[in-house]
Amino acid sequence: MSAVDTRRAIADFRNELGGNSVRGTIDGVLEFAKEFELVRGLLFKHVFDAVEHEVQLRLCVPDQSHSKFEYPGQHWKNLGYRERLILEYHNGPLAGHIGRERTYELMSKDYWWPGMYESIRRWCRNCETCIRERGISGVTSFSRTQYYSRPFRVLQYDTVECNNPRDESGKKYILTVICCFSRCRDRQAWRSCKR
Predict the structure, then answer these.
(1) How far is 139 from 132, CA to CA, in rounded Å?
(2) pLDDT at residue 110 greater than cutoff 90
(3) Of 125, 133, 129, the residue nearest 92 (C-alpha)
(4) Residue 158's closest CA among 134, 140, 185?
């Protein structure tokens, strides 16, 4: 395709999208396109690797739906190619929830997309396992474990014997029950307590 045909194709594309959807001039678009390369039908971006001191290719990942994923205890959600890669690199059996920076470091060696760091940051910020590990500010360590993730899953109970019951019904034991998640309390008086 000649330079004139390329310019005409870009101009036609901008006109189809209303002109405002594609930013920059045609020369700017052509200059930006030099950062990319098509290899066997796959789009790669040229990225300078500071460790290797050379320009390397990174696979460009599209922003399209790939499959569905069930968040445990929640609902099914559409999972795009990008999210699927983050799932494998961050949550996968060989990854072990390695954190935002390490996930980005590993993924950026092979892949690229606009806003990749922000996508990984958002994923790690919402990862339930990572939230449990690092805790939530303002919450005590008492309520951080996975067992206290919903009401009435873990209960604490205790029985107290009263030496001088004031109740004329003869109930001299008090059973107290506390929900570890909501800290909801309940108590009941009993006549006898078998241990």
Answers:
(1) 11
(2) yes
(3) 129
(4) 185
> pTM for this one?
0.56
The token duo for 123 is 């994923």
* pLDDT tens, residue by residue, 19-34: 554 566 777 777 778 8
- The domains of the chain are located at 3-34, 65-134, 148-190
Task: Give per-residue burial for 90-122: e unless 16+ CB within 10 Å, then b.
Answer: bbeeebebbbbebbbeebeeebbbeebeebbee
Question: 173-179 and 185-190: which strand pairing?
Answer: antiparallel
Task: Give the pair of three-digit tokens for residue 122.
Answer: 């958002």
Q: Write the CB contacts of 170 (distance below 8 Å, at least 6 apart in sequence).
A: 191
